[in-house]
Every structure is written in C-alpha cells, then in structure tokens.
Amino acid sequence: MAREFDFSLLKKQTVNYQQIEVTIHKAYKSVEASRKVLGTDTDSSFILAYEAMLKATLALMLSRGYRPRTALGHHKTLVDFSSFVLGEKFEGITAAYDSMRAKRNKVVYDIALVSEDEASQATILAGQYVDIIKNKIEEDNPQPRLL
To answer: Quick check: helix, strand or coil at residue 113?
Structure first.
C-alpha cells in the first residue's frame, strides 16, 4: 500500500475539532446502519460499512488539516491517505479497505452482488477501522476525547 502520498490530491482545510467529531459520529452511525440492514440487504450493508470507513478517513484527513479535492478517484485518495498515515502496523486493514473500495464500485456501477458473509465481514471491519481512526486522531491531537 501507499508508503508515499501525493498531497497535490488534497486541499488545505482549517482543523475544526467539532467537524471531526461530527464526522466520526456519522461513521459510527453508518456502521450501526450497516448492522441493522445486514439480514435484509447485503449490498446496502456492505456499502454502508464502506461509507463508514470513508467518513472515518475523512475525519483523519481533516485532523491533519486537509480534505480531498473533488475529482475522479477521490475514494482512492482517501484509501491511500489512510494507508500512508496508518503505516505498516495497519497494512492488513487498509488493504481490506482498498478491496472494499473496488468491490463497492462493482456493486454500484456493475452487476456484482455481496454475500451475507462479505457484508458481515465488512461491517465488523468497518467498526474496527472507525475505532482505529478515532484512537489515532485522539493520539495525534491533544484535544478533548472524541465522542
């Protein structure tokens, strides 16, 4: 995964801890929504889990004073940024996040389907990932704890 990162894909953003907290909260809500629909709509469950990871990554990016430029490929930019910031320690989860990105594209833009096991694993992974990001933001920033 990304050992280097192209910061030209980002734009500067003033750090706003309220915005970061709201974004993390939305990520947790997406994980919960993913759990709720898991038994009835595996595609939606998977997409909600993936969106939770996107929101958490956006919070991480905002905590560093950046946001992605609005352009084709901005989801890949978010995934690569998380890999760059989290490093080798979390290489497995960021690789899974990238795989989820590719699968989500096939589900949304093609005819791929998500199995119940895939959706369940995605939901679990998303919950773990949001926790990792929340902890990383708190570790890196001497601010009041998020949530």
So the answer is: coil
